[in-house]
Write a structure and sequence with these properties.
heterodimer; A: 157 residues; alpha+beta; 4 helices; 7 strands; 31% strand; globular; B: 959 residues; mainly alpha; Serine Threonine Protein Phosphatase 5, Tetratricopeptide repeat; 50 helices; Acyl_CoA_acyltransferase (chain A); Ard1-like (chain A)
Chain lengths: 157, 959
């Protein structure tokens, strides 16, 4: 297993992770845009040459007044065959570190489906995120999302 | 610009901005009335026109503007969009070059010229522009633009082999001419290393890398570190790398698998690096190294425990390599380690794939391993369920052919069903978005039934597989793996509509269409009901092709951003510098590679050919179709393709002595580059003969750039010669029926070709007609073939001096082909072949008939027959057509009857009875199986009847 920054040509492999994990896929352009704009924030997990997980992250672009610069996890996904190996955590920690050190992000935010108990457990219990808000009908199929947040102040250098 | 003029021009921009192109044209005309020579307004009008698809008018204006050699920013920008709309990228380059020449001190024009060249991949010119800019503006970034352009030129397919080192040496010289050393930033350092690697100057590279700054850069820059690894390996410094890796693993707790591989490579270096047999001394030394490495890995494994599996996996790999190098190791060592691994990580889903490379056990080892696994079955908790799934998969993997009897496989299928149904209890309360933990047991059921079908040839097993998997799919809606199996099985069962349903439910989009659309679009023409006007598969092709269109412009734009960022990198604020200081040049390479993989995707052009095959069945065979497809297929013909199709995604848990599930369930060998080449030749030949466009005409009428010619010597031959050349690679890729078809098409065009050449109007006549026709759009078909076909063909048909070619009898191969296909059909009908095979035969015969129609449409009008004394030829055509028609009609009748039989209550009952084995095991009630049976039989009926009607229609349309 090997975690490394994502590259443009990983796109095809990354999309394979999305077959079941992300009903709402982003356009190719959106991936490339991340890759181009914040190349340090996205990572892939590679096992025997195959991409088995990835995190796609960015810095928030439209900061509302008084808001501190912060990162946002656009999507994170691990193949079912490689669950429960602590991969998501490792991907997340890598990305958070880059957010804090490269961009001085004060915190990181993300959205999660209300029904996604496994992910909720990971964010809350393992990574220490807290729920800030509920966004009604955030997903295309009408499901609500929790808006979650984690401070990165401890990582600031 | 004067205020008055500004006031007049503003409305034009406003109209263009809001896409009100018609009012933009009006606004332009208003200004042009007073100032007929205003270049900017002309350019803007050309832009509005091209957006309105008035290509011809836009073209005229554009040429006028270009002739004025514009240098004004507004004109250049407008023209860039006009020319892009016309597909004339090389004219954009020329325009900026001309402008830059007039104002060599204008940095912006230089940059634009450079970018224009980048856009078309014209690296040589880009390099020259950048060099000029570097001299003029004395900025190192332009030096690196020029260096990197030279590197890209060296990498370009079109660059001759001998020129490559010259370019790289030039680049290297340029680096040393810079004001700052390359490690000024990681990107430049990367470029430097890249050049040294390509030139095989490993020692020089190592000197740079061992320098303090070089080491620092590699610690923080991934791409530099990657290339460092690569260079060290090429340099043969494996042992040194191994030592470093050891330190990283033990002291820094680095669990990057690449470090483990480095240490493994170093351990075996003395044996693996030479081809000579190792002496005893060497063997002893390596054995000692192995012991040391084993200690390192064991330590890592002990420290990590359940936290990381790298240590244990590395130990397995170490034993495997030891054995493969013929060094002494205890026979049971690998098995013990596998057992150890299983004990620790057996409840992880990845365990099965982790262990596969190490499990080729035989004899006693296999017995022990099997009994070890058998003792680990348990179904008490979700964790032990996952462990049991691994047990079942691992047991299945090592089954021997003696154990694969129909009886035993059936017993296994039933056991898998039982544990599957039992395992469902762990997922009762899961929401719809979650997968069932027991899914993989259902997938195993599918595998067992497919294997049963392979063993016995009985279709009923496929039906049982379909029923079970449908059941599982309904309970685990997000499981794309279950759907993948169903897609394959439904195709085999002749129910493509159901396969398509599952494919659509997988929600494949974006880049996935490139990697996965093969699931439903491989040889899709054989399922298509296009002759009846059902364009489902045609639209599926079009939709899937969308990504290539949008991608091209997308990647191009991003490429430009990359260069631009490099530019801002050094100048703008610290923040951006920090954000963008890594990986720029390497990203440019990545982008170019990515674009190449998509642009020249094999699947993309396979879909194009499928679309053409269906279009020919769907539409009248007129000039519009023929000319347009001819041009498009010729564009594709020279591409060197990348196969991005993903077959690995299809689960495989078949025993290692059997082919994979993917291989077992392919109706035919998947079409590859050879197949594509064969079919491109078939259709280009046929279109070329049917068309009035010859190369000179095409050149004159086609606007926009041609694809870059590739360097392959084969491609230098004249097109006509290449089209009739059969290559072994092509033949190998075709099915038996397709081989016959390929021969048939060759014989057909060889026979009919000379008559076409004689009757085809001369280029001069065509061009004259094209000039006359006002609404003719460039790149669009000529009307002349339609004119020829409807009999008013005297226009453009000059009297020929030579006599028409003597009429020859049809080659024997042509009628024989239809006879052969008829007997193939009869044989399959009376046997137990699958629907997919039957439909393949039918589709191939229909395609042959359509090509015959395509090749003879020119000779249909009585006036042509009379004028060229082709009476005898017409008679031969007629005889053949009658013969082929009657065979197609017969096939149609038989298929229609089969369709009726299939969907009767009796037919369904047969299906349900066939699936009786899955009903025995409780849980699947009669009604559920009946439901699946009804769906499957209805879908098959729909296909059979549709194709039967389609055949009749094709015959009627072209009789």
């Amino acid at each position: 297993m090997n975690i490394r920054p994502a590259r443009v040509d990983d796109l095809m492999g990354m999309q394979a992770c999305n077959l079941q994990n992300l009903p709402e896929n982003y356009t190719m352009k959106y991936y490339l845009y991340h890759e181009l704009t914040w190349p340090q924030l996205s990572f892939v997990a590679e096992d025997q040459g195959r991409i088995v997980g990835y995190i796609l992250a960015k810095m928030e672009e439209d900061l509302s007044e008084g808001d501190e610069p912060h990162g946002h996890v656009t999507s994170i996904s691990v193949l079912r065959s490689h669950r429960r190996l602590g991969l998501a955590k490792r991907l997340m920690v890598q990305s958070q570190e880059a957010m804090a050190t490269v961009y001085r992000a004060a915190y990181v935010s993300l959205h999660v489906r209300k029904s996604n108990r496994a992910a909720l457990g990971l964010y809350k219990d393992t990574l220490g995120f807290t729920v800030r808000d509920i966004e009604k009908k955030y997903y295309a199929d009408g499901e609500d999302a929790y808006a979650m947040r984690l401070s990165l102040k401890h990582l600031a250098r | 610009m004067s205020t008055a003029l500004d006031r007049q021009i503003r409305p034009i921009y406003d109209a263009l901005d809001t896409q009100s192109n018609k009012s933009a044209v009006l606004a332009c005309n208003k200004v042009l009335k007073k100032q007929p020579n205003n270049v900017l307004v002309k350019a803007l009008k050309a832009l509005a026109l091209v957006r309105l698809q008035k290509v011809e008018e836009s073209l005229l204006l554009a040429d006028e503007v270009l002739a004025k050699k514009p240098t004004d920013d507004g004109v250049l920008t407008a023209m860039m969009h006009v020319l892009r709309g016309l597909g004339r990228h090389s004219d954009i380059v020329a325009m900026f070059e001309t402008a830059y020449k007039q104002h060599p001190q204008n940095e912006d024009l230089g940059t634009q010229t450079f970018f224009a060249n980048v856009r078309v991949g014209n690296w040589k010119a880009a390099q020259q522009v950048a060099t000029k800019m570097h001299k003029q503006f004395q900025d190192d970034r332009y030096l690196y633009w020029s260096i990197f352009s030279a590197v890209l030129q060296a990498n370009d397919m079109a660059t001759p082999e001998a020129l490559r080192p010259v370019l790289l040496k030039l680049a290297l010289r340029l680096i040393s001419s810079g004001n700052t050393p390359s490690y000024f930033n990681p990107d430049r350092f990367y470029v430097h290393l890249l050049i040294l690697r390509e030139l095989e100057m490993y020692d020089d590279a190592a000197t740079l890398l061992n320098h303090e700054i070089g080491q620092k850069i590699c610690e923080t820059s991934l791409v530099c570190d990657e290339i460092r690894r690569d260079i060290m390996k090429l340099k043969g410094a494996c042992k040194q790398e191994g030592e470093q890796a050891k330190v990283k693993i033990l002291e820094k707790k680095d669990r990057n698998w690449l470090e483990f591989l480095s240490l493994l490579d170093a351990t075996f270096w003395d044996i693996a690096s030479t081809s000579e047999p190792a002496s005893e001394d060497v063997k002893a030394a390596v054995t000692e190294e192995i012991a040391k490495t084993r200690k390192v890995f064991s330590e890592a494994a002990t420290v990590d425990g359940l936290k990381d599996r790298s240590g244990l996996l590395a130990l397995l790999e170490l034993e495997k390599r030891t054995k493969s190098h013929g060094l002494w190791t205890d026979a049971c060592e690998i098995r013990m380690m596998a057992e150890n691994y299983f004990s620790q990580f057996g409840d992880k889903a990845c365990c099965y794939e982790d262990l596969l490379p190490y499990l080729a056990f035989e004899g006693e080892e296999l017995e022990q391993w099997t009994s070890f696994l058998n003792s680990r079955k348990s179904f008490d908790t979700p964790d032990t369920l996952q462990r049991s799934i691994n047990v079942y998969k691992l047991l299945r993997y090592n089954l021997t052919s003696a154990e694969l009897t129909p009886e035993l496989e059936l017993a296994r299928a039933q056991e898998y069903i039982k544990v599957y149904l039992d395992g469902l209890k762990f997922g009762v309360n899961l929401p719809d978005t979650e997968l069932q933990p027991a899914d993989d047991f259902a997938i195993l059921v599918g595998h067992a039934y497919v294997s049963l079908w392979k063993l016995t040839g009985e279709e009923s097993h496929l039906q049982s597989a379909a029923a079970t998997l449908e059941y599982a799919s309904a309970r685990s809606k997000q499981s794309y793996r279950i759907r993948l199996l169903l897609i394959r099985i439904y195709h085999l069962l002749g129910a493509p509509a159901l396969a398509l349903d599952h494919y659509r439910l997988m929600n494949v989009k974006q880049v996935q269409t490139d990697t996965l659309s093969h699931l439903i679009l491989s040889r899709a023409a054989m399922w298509s009901l296009a002759p009846l006007g059902d364009i489902t598969y045609m639209s599926e092709c079009m939709e899937a092709s969308q990504i290539y269109m949008s991608n091209s412009t997308e990647v191009c734009n991003l490429l430009l951003i990359l260069f631009a960022i490099v530019m801002t990198n050094i100048q703008t604020a610290e923040f951006i510098a920090r954000a963008f200081s890594t990986e720029r040049y390497s990203q440019i390479i990545d982008f170019i590679e990515f674009e190449d993989r998509l642009d020249n995707s094999l699947q993309r052009d396979l879909m194009k050919v499928e679309h053409v095959r269906m279009r020919v069945a769907h539409e009248p065979l007129n000039a519009e179709l023929v000319d347009m497809e001819l041009i498009e297929l010729k564009f594709i013909f020279d591409r060197i393709h990348h196969d991005n199709r993903d077959f690995e995604v299809i689960p495989n848990y078949q025993p290692r002595c059997q082919p994979s599930f993917n291989e077992q369930t392919l109706p035919l060998k998947p079409p590859g580059a050879g197949w594509l080449s064969a079919y491109l030749k078939v259709y280009i030949r046929a279109f070329q003969e049917a068309s009035d466009l010859d190369e000179t005409v095409e050149d004159k009428l086609l606007i926009g750039d041609r694809p870059k010619p590739s360097n392959d010597p084969e491609n230098q031959l004249p097109l006509r010669e290449r089209l009739v050349k059969k290559r072994q690679e092509e033949i190998d890729d075709l099915s038996e029926d397709e081989k016959l078809f390929y021969e048939y098409t060759l014989a057909l065009s060889e026979w009919v070709g000379p008559y076409h050449d004689y009757v085809r109007p001369p280029p001069s006549a065509l061009l004259a007609e094209a000039a006359k026709s006002n609404d003719l759009k460039p790149g669009h078909p000529l009307k002349s073939m339609a004119a020829a076909a409807n009999g008013s063909a005297t226009n453009g048909h000059s009297k020929k001096d030579e006599e028409p070619p003597a009429v020859k009898e049809s080659p024997e191969l042509i009628p024989k082909f239809f006879d052969d296909m008829k007997s193939r059909f009869d044989a399959v009908i009376s046997g137990t072949a699958l629907p997919s095979e039957l439909l393949h035969i039918v589709a191939t015969t229909q395609e042959a008939y359509l090509l015959f129609a395509l090749e003879t449409v020119r000779f249909k009008p009585n006036s042509i027959i009379k004028q060229y004394k082709f009476g005898q030829l017409a008679q031969s055509f007629k005889d053949l057509r009658v013969k082929a028609s009657s065979i197609l009609n017969e096939m149609s009748t038989v298929l229609a009857k089969l369709g009726e039989e299939v969907a009767t209550p009796d037919g369904r009952k047969a299906f349900v009875q066939a699936s009786s084995s899955i009903q025995d095991s409780s849980g699947f009630d009669h009604d559920f199986v009946l439901g699946v049976a009804k769906k499957t039989t209805d879908a098959r009926k729909q296909t059979y009847e549709g194709i039967a009607k389609g055949l009749a229609k094709v015959v009627k349309n072209h009789s």
